[in-house]
Design goal:
Shape: globular
Order of helices and strands: HHH
Distance between the termini: 33 Å
Largest sheet: none
Length: 55
């Protein structure tokens, strides 16, 4: 059985990045609360810092 890859909306990603950069959520809090992987969080944050909201 093939595993389907979960996709996240741009709004969800922006919400997570905003919580991390502006609301003071720690990385571990976000990972546990939203059940996302560390590499995804880092990718979203890096992309936002490089390209802004368009990224």
């Amino acid at each position: 059985m093939e595993k389907k890859r979960k996709t996240y909306s741009a709004e969800f990603k922006m919400d997570i990045v905003h919580k991390y950069l502006h609301e003071g959520w720690s990385q571990s809090e976000l990972l546990k609360h939203f059940r996302i992987h560390n590499s995804m969080l880092q990718r979203w944050v890096n992309q936002y810092q490089r390209e802004g909201i368009e990224g």
